[in-house]
Amino acid sequence: MRPRWLLGLAIALAAGCGGKRFAPVSGTVTMDGKPCANATVTFSPARAGKGVEAGDSSVGKTNEKGEYTLRAAKGQNGAQVGKHRVSVTRVNQQAGDSDARPPRGGWPVGDQIPKRYNENSELTFDVPSGGTDKANFELKSR
Fold first, then answer.
1. Could you state, in chain order, the average pLDDT of each consecutive group of 10 residues for the chain (142 residues)?
2. What pTM was computed for the model?
3. CATH number of the domain to which 125 belongs
């Protein structure tokens, strides 16, 4: 009876150790010292090397105070433990100035956040194993 119990414990431990660990992550985003509302914050795990799968990204949306909480694509709360590339976007639809129909494909959209914080992001964050509520980003428009 004891060997089965030990075997079960060993399998459970191996399964737990092999998975990617997630930790709760939240924080605030400001732009020029003011809350950055309605922005999307994305944490993408940094690659360890060529051909190595980095893992699932986590996303959060800021409220009117610039506060966000991350959630992974597969439903886990928080982000994968480790180093991440962070991007912040806030797009708006650039509607026409008349009653004209939108062009094919819809009105163009523009990002209100400078490219250095999204497309060419310079932001990184290291998610600790215990999680954090201080993943804060102070962005500058210029």
1. 49 48 96 95 82 78 98 92 94 62 65 87 95 97 86
2. 0.74
3. 2.60.40
